[in-house]
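Two entries, shown back to back:
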Amino acid sequence: MAQRTKSAFGRRRVIAYHGRCFDGALSAALVEALLDAVEGPAAATRYRPLAHQQGRGYDARLLAGDCNAVVDFKYSTSHRLHWWFDHHKSGFRSPRQRAHFEARRSPQMFFAPEYPSCSMLIHDVARDRFGVDLGRFGETLRWADLIDSARFSSAQQAVELTEPALQLMTYIEASSDAEVNALIPRFGRESLAAIVAGEPVHGTFERLFAEHWRNVDRVRAAARLTGQVLLTDLTATPLDGINKFIGFYLFPDAVYSVAVIAGPRRAKVAVGTNPWRAGSRRHDIAALCEPYGGGGHAAVGAVTLPAGQTAEALRVAREIAQQLARSTP
């Protein structure tokens, strides 16, 4: 067990996390609880959501605190990065970055792509390395593992959204950065059912749920299944997010889904494998997304572009779909 040390860190804390993501938001809450235990509470904490984008990754200047943590997102060589946890295969943008991480040998940085969720990685490191018990997050942790690994019992469970955790997932994926940031401190203090039953989540989810079923109709109209690949162009309607399992709910024979959305804040290419046909997967989705500045896992990934780059997002989607259509990588 690593020895706890109170330090000068923590006066002004920045926690950067994978934005619009259940696991990312929970990871931010978990690392904050870990840092409170190891270094003492911060005078102020600023949450900074991050997105997989084309280009050079996030600007290290956002690491502007006395203590800076990045969770559920890519590594940075910046000396301003003090804590790092990630479980994505695409955690490093280059072999040079991986070599930098290994040479750094920091006892506060952890990369474990074998973990289904970054949340569970933080929980286990907190317990095993620092002797910090984060058991109060237990219910939410279990759901983060299930959601991030897409281990739903069925497409119906993933799309019909009857469980509070899946309703909260929907809220997080569709809400503004400020709304998700406000939610993070509630993890571990309130049950999922209590968070979902209260405002602003309840009222927002009711609106989102109605829109969700309109999105089901949009996917039904726009999706094109060619062989095992489902390509869906949803750019005719401004959308910032959509349930990634709708395609498999409507087209259960699809092995892969490539969907394009475009809204006022971003354009996005979402790429996924049908969890109920996972044995048919022949491609590494993260590896397909990385050349476009995206990332993810072997079975799911995404590329995010700035708002207005709809044509580029469609080009990327078509290229990825063509690669997925090949029987071998």
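entry 2 starts here
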Amino acid sequence: MKAGSNASIRRFLRPAALPTPFCPGCGHGILLGTLLRAIDESPWPLEEYLFVSGIGCAGWIPSPHIAADTLHVTHGRPLAFATGVKVVNPGLHVVVIGGDGDLASIGGNHLIHAARRNLPMLAICANNETYGMTGGQVTPTTPRGARTATTLQGNPDRPFDLVRLVEAAGAGYVARFSVWHTRPLIRAIRRGLSFPGFAFIEVLSPCPTQAGRRNQLGTPAEMLRALSRRCVSIARARQMAPEELAGKVLVGEFVGGEDAGGRPDGSAERDS
């Protein structure tokens, strides 16, 4: 069977996992598809993987969908559990999947220390810029000015740039894409799976139910198209003036990949 085909990745899904629990228009289903395609192209069987996730919308990406060993753990702690697993069984290919609230808020300290320790594992942050499951509260990645359940007048604080944060903490492979960029995202996940140290991929994923509704961002299709306009590749950003980068988010491989050298200073990312 040809690697990467729709038929082949179905063998990675549990029969009871469909239909998915995601809201209509949620980008997490697209992320699940890219992850499975990357695994389909990897040299290791599914039995050699372990998926660890915390509480939140992103926690449903591996569990209950993927027919593999999974740990669905307490909120903010997937990297801590994954660290213990990797120390005890170094032969497992450990993949951590969490949301921006899970990995960057309550689990933020675990994130920077996992990068510092450089244990071989892949961490994927499904960033929908809100606490989607618990009512749409503000998170550390919510854009400035965005309305949430806890910032009714708009978020007054500058969001984290997770790429810069994890890079500064010492991660050897760092990338960011959106669910619009499926092909480069598959390649990035494939590289992250095989990277010999700590790999981190931030994936921008629209949340029509919470962020979209509260900020009147339109239909799920309109949110996806807006995401494609908002994201700018590192290579393209090098040719753009600072005023053109205002409100944009840089995507690509920032550390350990083809785009890593000579990237812009990223000021547009921090203020987007």
